[in-house]
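Quick one, tokens below:
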């Protein structure tokens, strides 16, 4: 089985030909993957909280462009951010404020509409907002 870094620290079990990924602190199913890792799973649909974990180069560039202008704005307005480091696959604490991308980002890249973000230490983290899970780090 191929190890996916975004699920490091998660629990899993196998049902027929699917690998079910479970968030250890809540025991919620976060994804259902085909056991072979090469095709989509047949049968029941993945859990509602499953998500895309890799964005296109274009999406990443749009995120970077927005993040840069957002960081400049934060510096000029005196806004500060916590120095806590985050990792892909982690669930954000409720105390961390997640932000919507500006409408211009959604117009340029509609695939980002379902996601939110946080900025920390010159990194942008893309968040799946229902589960508050970090799904990608953009440097």
């Amino acid at each position: 089985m191929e190890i996916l870094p975004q699920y490091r620290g998660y629990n899993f079990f196998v049902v027929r030909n699917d690998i079910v990924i479970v968030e250890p602190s809540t025991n919620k199913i976060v994804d259902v993957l085909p056991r072979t890792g090469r095709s989509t799973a047949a049968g029941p649909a993945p859990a509602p909280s499953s998500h895309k974990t890799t964005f296109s180069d274009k999406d990443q560039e749009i995120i970077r462009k927005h993040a840069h202008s957002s960081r400049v704005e934060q510096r000029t307005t005196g806004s500060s951010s916590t120095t806590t480091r985050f990792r892909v696959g982690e669930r954000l604490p409720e105390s961390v404020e997640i932000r919507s991308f500006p409408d211009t980002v959604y117009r340029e890249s509609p695939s980002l509409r379902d996601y939110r973000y946080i900025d920390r230490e010159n990194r942008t983290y893309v968040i799946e907002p229902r589960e508050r899970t970090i799904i990608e780090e953009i440097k």
